[in-house]
């Protein structure tokens, strides 16, 4: 089957994208609003951008009319945010923060999360999360839509401080099993890591030897 994205709706293209690009890690992002309210929202369009310096990106779709979401607007104004990892212990409460609360209502406190002071940025961290990435804004890129009403904002932030719960950290690595990360699939479906396997990359000589190409 061939599908021309220009011949179908934005919603139909969205369904194909989230059904194709998966599983997607979820960034649970905290920011500060103009009146000091702590905004907290999950985003599954999220990935690593750079390792030197460490950088991550989140994509915030805009509201109808090209209106920025609270998270994007807050980051544009303050230049700071924190990304928390979603895991099996906190995913249900994080899902509650996706409720369309008004800007003056802090989602984190509304759903019962406890806040922790960050080390390098002003937005707080979430105590119930095991990994936090404190970020400073590097760049915001309006994407898609039209010049006056973009479809989304791609937000790139530099990680200026990592927080990892002590029992997860061993010799520079994070224990995936103890972290128990949760990813987003299509629709309202989530998934965990499940079965894992190791498959090392071969050098060219190793590949030739293994596959009889020498």
How would you describe the overall organization of this protein?
The protein is of the alpha+beta class and 214 residues long. The chain has a single domain, classed as Pnp Oxidase, Chain A (Roll). It has helices at residues 10-20, 70-78, 91-96, 107-110, 176-179, 204-210; strands at 24-25, 27-32, 38-43, 46-51, 54-61, 80-85, 115-116, 125-126, 131-143, 152-164, 169-170, 173-174, 182-184, 190-192. The strands form 4 sheets. It has a 7-stranded antiparallel sheet. A 3-stranded antiparallel sheet has the order 1-13-14, with no helix packed on it. A hairpin with a 5-residue loop joins strand 2 (27-32) and strand 3 (38-43). The radius of gyration is 19 Å and the shape is globular. The mean pLDDT is 94.
Mean pLDDT across all amino acids: 94
Per CATH, the class reads Mainly Beta
Assign the CATH architecture: Roll
Helix content: 10-25%
Category by helix and strand content: alpha+beta
Task: Indicate how many domains the architecture comprises.
Answer: 1
Order of neighbouring strands in the sheet with most strands: 3-2-6-9-10-5-4
Overview features:
214 residues, seven-stranded antiparallel beta sheet, globular, Pnp Oxidase, Chain A, three-stranded antiparallel beta sheet
């Amino acid at each position: 089957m061939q599908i021309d994205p220009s011949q179908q709706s934005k919603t139909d293209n969205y369904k194909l994208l989230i059904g194709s690009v998966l599983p997607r890690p979820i960034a649970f992002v905290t920011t500060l609003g103009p009146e000091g309210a702590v905004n907290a929202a999950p985003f599954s369009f999220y990935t690593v951008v750079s390792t030197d310096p460490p950088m991550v990106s989140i994509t915030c779709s805009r509201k109808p009319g090209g209106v920025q979401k609270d998270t994007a607007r807050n980051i544009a104004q303050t230049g700071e945010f924190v990304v928390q990892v979603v895991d099996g212990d906190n995913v249900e409460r994080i899902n509650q923060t996706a409720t369309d609360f008004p800007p003056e209502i802090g989602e984190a406190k509304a759903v019962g999360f406890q806040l922790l002071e960050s080390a390098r940025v002003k937005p707080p961290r979430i105590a119930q999360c095991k990994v936090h990435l404190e970020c400073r804004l590097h760049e915001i890129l309006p994407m898609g839509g039209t010049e006056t009403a973009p479809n989304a904002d791609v937000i790139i932030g530099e990680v200026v401080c990592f927080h990892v719960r002590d029992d997860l950290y061993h010799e520079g690595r994070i224990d995936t099993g103890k972290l128990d990360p949760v990813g987003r699939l299509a629709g309202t479906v989530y998934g965990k890591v499940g079965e894992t396997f190791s498959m090392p990359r071969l050098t060219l000589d190793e590949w030739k030897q293994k596959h009889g190409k020498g």
